Amino acid sequence: MKKLESSLLNMVLVLTGVAVIMGGILAYVNHLTEGPIAAQKEKALADGIKTVMCVSDLKVAKTDEVKQNDDKGKELTYTIYQIQDAQGKDLGAAVESATMGFGGDLKVLVGFDTEGNILGYTLLEHAETPGLGAKADQWFQKGQKGDIIGKSPAEPLTVSKDGGQVDAITASTITSRAFLLAVNNAYNAYKATPAADAETGATTPVQPN
Q1: CB 177 within 8 Å of CB 140
Q2: What is the pLDDT of residues 181-192, one digit of tens each?
Q3: N or C: which end of the chain has fewer CB within 10 A?
Q4: d(CA 161, CA 148)
């Protein structure tokens, strides 16, 4: 019996040692990769801002965060990047917005001009079905079937099935509704952005390369 107890104790000690070593290795690898991953995300965001604002030579003059409740009372946070051209002229803003799509979180970046009209958009994250809901990255672009470019969400954008003017992605009405909700919410957050000279919880600007 003593021999068995000794074997069990040894096994526990060995497994514990292995777990500690593996945990240390994973922590070290995470430390090495978190910097490049953060840099990659920042570059993707900077490129996305250029895409949705349809301007390559621009600067993020200010970054605001706006908190609003959705229709279910859940508080959501929106990040608004106030954009200027190289001469310092206000161009509008790029707004990060997220909703729940068919497969999971659907995060978009939407560009608005100073009047609130949509300049462009890009998907930052999604978990939609490839070939169906994933088509949202192109479906609502200029010249496509669900074109929303140039429209103003002052009157909320909705799919034609719900009485709106936007054609839903074929066989992906849920994703289409989620996408348009994200755009509508982005617009509302943009319009609620504090005045340029007001104090906000502004974060460090992301400067497009």
Answers
A1: no
A2: 999 999 999 998
A3: N
A4: 16
